[in-house]
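Sample intake sheet
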Amino acid sequence: MKYMMLIYSAESAEPSYGTPEFSAHIEAYFAFNETMTKRGVFVEGDALESVDSATTVCVRDGKTNTTDGPFAETKEQLGGFYILDCKDLDEAIECAAQIPSAALGRVEIRPLVVFEH
């Protein structure tokens, strides 16, 4: 079953770009990617730009409305995602615990819905 791992953390808790801590953090992500690929569960994953680049869209009464920024003002923002093909939720939890930002924030695990045609 495919699971989406939604990575939430406060941007201020993440290491700053260009610092040795940032390099170590990114190396940890590269290692995670390699581990999940070798394990055969990696499907897709990517980081997101800062919440400053977010645009939220809603349609009300046929009118499209946009707002700069994320939908909710929270301390933690969605920073990236993985899609992993795990045998069950237990394996998905074990994999999510290895995502480097799990130590700085949270990783929400959601099974993907497979629609039949």
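Comment: The chain is about 25% helix and 35% strand. Residues 2-49+77-111 form a domain with the Alpha-Beta Plaits fold (CATH 3.30.70.1060).
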